[in-house]
Design a protein that fits this description.
Elements lengths: L15 H5 L35 H8 L4 E7 L2 E8 L2 E8 L8 E7 L2 E2 L8 E2 L18 E2 L9 H6 L2 E2 L14 H7 L7 H6 L8 E6 L13 E5 L12 H9 L10 E6 L7 H17 L8 E3 L11 H13 L3 E3 L8 E6 L11 E3 L13 E6 L2 E3 L7 E3 L9 H14 L5 H10 L2 E3 L2 E3 L2 H9 L4
Parallel strand pairs: 6-7, 9-11, 9-12, 10-11, 12-13, 14-16, 16-20
Antiparallel strand pairs: 1-2, 2-3, 3-4, 4-5, 8-18, 14-15, 17-18, 19-20
Length: 455
């Protein structure tokens, strides 16, 4: 996560990714934690337990008070265990969201895990269930068919959804999920007009260092030329990789859709700079073996808290080395380029800077007329849930803006092969469009300025 401002950030197999992907195996405590008591779970009442919706109060109302309870951490999650004499119920919530209730994640009776719907599609039965939805994944993969959403316009504006969300007949007037998904694919700021002129990243290479990637997604699978998962053996695709890959090089929503993609999977949930430093070193080592025309010029890392996790000197050393070798490294850090992100108004033209405003969390930053702003919120991105699944995100963090900047750097390297990373960073700021809240990236002006000395 980015410590300065709220951000979805990376999540590990035991973290938020487990929530967004459907519940992974529950980490049960041993039977020795249980004791003898009149507090007994009735298997015949298991249908009353609603995975991902029942909180602890609702559960105890249905099944009675437990023998005992305890809390523990599991990655980015906080777990609540309720112990009965013949079983256990486990609840969880994001560890940094202590204001939210614990929601049921699993139930075990006499060493048998009960089927309470954790592995299937989440189906909401009443409007009050919307209050239990985990805000990061939102309505993605959720069935809403039983609900009347006609009065829920504001809520639907704030929750992500995806192409697997099942909608009811009753939705707010003017709410069109298909149109929102299609509009959100546009990178905006005139990027597609550059694509039509052949400025689309062709001949350039971008490396992404992030969580394990779903390799087969239709949005970017044809752009992948290299994938290294040696740092994450056996880990399934996580939620972070597909969005960042699609924003950088996606064929319908990417900033540089013709760039080659080299991908290095790292365990970002371990919160250690050595993985990012090693990723950069691996990029440089690979570059040394590639023909000059295929070498990586841009690296995207959707993380920004380098100073706050172990082995920062390793990261600093690797970053300096990469920059000296001519790589533009885009991260969520304030160095070398400080920026915040923007969200699109779906009713307006994505190519116009006025159609974008600071995301909710970015709007809380102190005013700075020179601060750079980059698209990130209200974008449609590829999802790790399946090879043809797309998600409409809402108030995204900088994780979705770092690959946008990486894509712009690839366009600049294509248009101006001799440009330096330092010059790209400078031109991104100098060519940005002034707005009341700061300066918005201007891709066409960036390309025109970098080409100006060559004319």
């Amino acid at each position: 996560m980015i410590p300065t401002y709220p951000d979805p950030g990376p999540a590990g197999p035991a973290g938020l990714a487990a929530v967004t992907a459907g519940l992974a195996a529950v980490a049960w405590l041993g039977a020795s934690a249980l004791g003898a008591s009149a507090a007994t779970l009735d298997p015949g009442q298991a249908a009353r337990a609603r995975c991902r919706l029942s909180d602890a109060a609702e559960f105890t109302e249905a099944f009675g008070a437990p023998l005992s309870s305890s809390t523990r951490r599991d990655g980015d999650l906080e777990l609540l265990d309720l112990f009965y004499d013949n079983g256990q119920a486990v609840f969880r919530r994001p560890a940094d969201k202590t204001q939210r209730p614990f929601l049921l994640a699993g139930m075990r009776i006499a060493d048998e895990e009960m089927d309470i719907g954790c592995g299937g599609k989440l189906a909401l039965a009443r409007l009050s269930d919307l209050e239990r939805i985990e805000r990061f994944a939102g309505l993605s993969g959720v069935s809403l068919k039983a609900l009347d959403l006609s009065t829920q316009k504001d809520l639907l504006r704030s929750l992500p959804f995806d192409t697997e969300t099942q909608w009811p007949d009753r939705v707010p007037a003017g709410f069109d999920p298909d149109r929102i998904l299609e509009t959100g694919k546009d990178p905006g700021m005139g990027v597609r007009s550059l694509h039509r002129e052949g400025i689309d990243g062709r001949g350039t290479s971008i490396a992404i260092i992030d969580q394990p990637l779903l390799l087969g997604h239709v949005e970017y699978r044809d752009r992948i030329v290299f994938y290294d998962a040696t740092a994450t053996p056996g880990v399934e695709p996580q939620m972070h990789g597909s969005p960042v890959a699609s924003i950088a090089v996606g064929k319908t929503l990417g900033v540089a859709p013709s760039a080659r993609l080299y991908y290095f999977a790292v365990p970002s949930w371990k919160q250690d700079n050595r993985y990012y430093a090693q990723g950069l070193e691996d990029v440089l080592r690979l570059n040394a073996s590639l023909p000059k025309e295929d070498r990586i010029r841009v690296v995207s890392i959707s993380f920004g808290g380098f100073k706050n996790i172990p082995n920062y000197p390793l990261w600093e050393k690797a970053l300096r080395k990469a920059t000296r070798q001519g790589l533009y490294v885009s991260t969520c850090s304030r160095e070398p380029l400080s920026y915040l992100n923007l969200a699109l108004d779906f009713q307006k033209d994505p190519d116009q800077p006025s159609s974008w405003t600071p995301t909710d969390w970015a709007s809380k930053a102190p005013p700075n007329p020179d601060r750079l702003y980059v698209p990130g919120g209200n974008r449609t991105v590829a999802s790790h849930r399946g090879p043809e699944v797309y998600q409409s995100d809402r108030d995204a963090g900088l994780s979705w803006s770092a690959p946008y900047l990486a894509g712009l750097a690839a366009l600049a390297f294509q248009a101006c092969p001799g440009i330096t990373p330092e010059k790209i960073a400078l031109l991104l700021k100098e060519t940005a469009t002034p707005m009341p809240f700061g300066r918005v990236v201007a891709p066409r002006a960036l390309i025109e300025r970098c080409r100006a000395p060559l004319r």
